UniProtKB/TrEMBL annotation:
Residue span(s) of domain Pirin N-terminal: 40-141
Protein name (record): Pirin
Keyword Nucleotidyltransferase: no
Native organism taxonomy: Bacteria, Bacillati, Actinomycetota, Actinomycetes, Actinopolysporales
Signal peptide location: none
Tagged with keyword Amino-acid biosynthesis: no
Residues involved in Fe cation binding: 79, 81, 123, 125
CDD domains: cupin_pirin_C (cd02247), cupin_pirin_N (cd02909)
Cofactor(s) the protein needs: Fe cation
Superkingdom of the source species: Bacteria
GO MF term (any one): metal ion binding
Keywords: Iron, Metal-binding
Domain Pirin C-terminal positions: 193-291
Cofactor binding description: Binds 1 Fe cation per subunit.
Length: 326
């Protein structure tokens, strides 16, 4: 998914906690339109000023359930990424993916689709005609310094669901409850979907070196001493050996995201994760050259699929030079 804001904020992000209390911190989302006037809207909880990163997780968009006949669904033409990995995870619906490595895939509920941008990639995402209701998340992972220019690629993994203490669990990245995902990560990570019946309390052993985020998809939960409802993200700093979740009266579905603090400062702007202002501007110009169809600067993002009828222009560059914060 692209960040379709016409004036995206340039952010310097670090792993320094926004709150050093051991209890949870509730992060509210903000609505962002995914395209034109009838566009589907997404709820973005990362990044924000209160919290930039959870491990290497640096971007969390939560959308739906949306009736695509009313919103037009997801329609994101070809656009670039550098220095990150995208994680697509659906609860309902179907999305068609194409990218400049030649990958062509369909994103379906309960199946991980992970695209590594690394040195540079471009892709498109469209909800299919088989989709009535679209509902899911788009997540980004910042690549650590030693791997941020790794070769681009695409991976698919369909984890098997299992039951733990009455909850349904799907582990798509990392390890939880003794179940591991085979998908390679470039930094220590956790990603899992958890579905809890009404009133159920679930206790999970976790790595105390990780910080964690609980994104509530449906229902309401109490975790780390705070209450959260659909669309909110609860952050907890490293140190906890257990994550406890108690579902409300209607049950709940959440994503548990975790990771060891990245301990690197990153610069995010539009669809790029870099380290300096100059890198971001260079990649913007290279995307401009690629869309124009030529020149030595046009090769970073690979050859566009013949099916693409359009690509997204980059927003105007930041008006002022980046000033580090935090």
């Amino acid at each position: 998914m692209s960040n379709l804001e016409t004036a995206p904020e340039e952010l310097v992000c670090s792993a320094t906690p926004a709150d050093d209390a051991p209890s949870g911190v509730v992060l509210d989302s903000r609505e962002v339109p995914l395209g034109g006037p009838r566009a589907m809207r997404v709820r973005r909880t990362l990044p924000q000023r209160a919290r930039s990163l959870i491990g290497a997780w640096c971007f969390v968009d939560h959308y739906g359930p949306e009736d695509v006949s009313a919103t037009g669904g997801m329609r994101v033409p070809g656009h670039p990424h550098v220095g990150l990995r995208t994680v697509s995870w659906l609860f309902s619906g179907e999305i068609e993916h194409r990218d400049t490595t030649g990958a062509h895939a369909f994103v379906r509920p309960g199946e991980l689709n992970l695209m590594t941008a690394g040195s540079g990639i471009a892709h498109s995402e469209y909800s299919t005609s088989r989709t009535g209701v679209l509902h899911g998340v788009q997540l980004w992972l910042a690549l650590p310094e030693d791997h941020r220019f790794t070769a681009p690629g695409f991976e698919h993994y369909a984890p098997s669901a299992f039951e733990h203490a009455g909850a349904r669990v799907l582990v798509f990245l990392g390890e939880l409850c003794g179940v591991s995902s085979p998908v390679r990560t470039f930094s220590p990570l956790l990603g899992a979907e958890l579905t809890l019946p009404a009133g159920r309390t679930l206790r999970l052993d976790v790595d105390p070196t990780f910080e964690h985020g609980v994104l509530v998809d449906t229902g309401a939960v109490t975790t780390a001493g705070v209450d959260a409802t659909a669309g909110q993200l609860v952050y907890r700093a490293p140190g906890a050996r257990e994550v406890s979740l108690r579902a409300g009266d209607e049950g709940a579905r959440v994503l548990l995201l975790g990771g060891r603090p990245l301990e690197e400062r990153i610069v995010m702007w539009w669809n790029f994760v870099g380290r300096t202002h100059e890198e971001i501007l260079a990649w913007r110009e290279q995307w401009h050259a690629a869309r124009a169809g030529g020149g030595a600067d046009s090769t970073r993002f690979g050859a566009f699929p013949v099916q693409w009828q359009e690509t997204l222009p980059a927003p105007e560059p930041p008006a002022a030079r980046l000033k580090p914060r935090g």
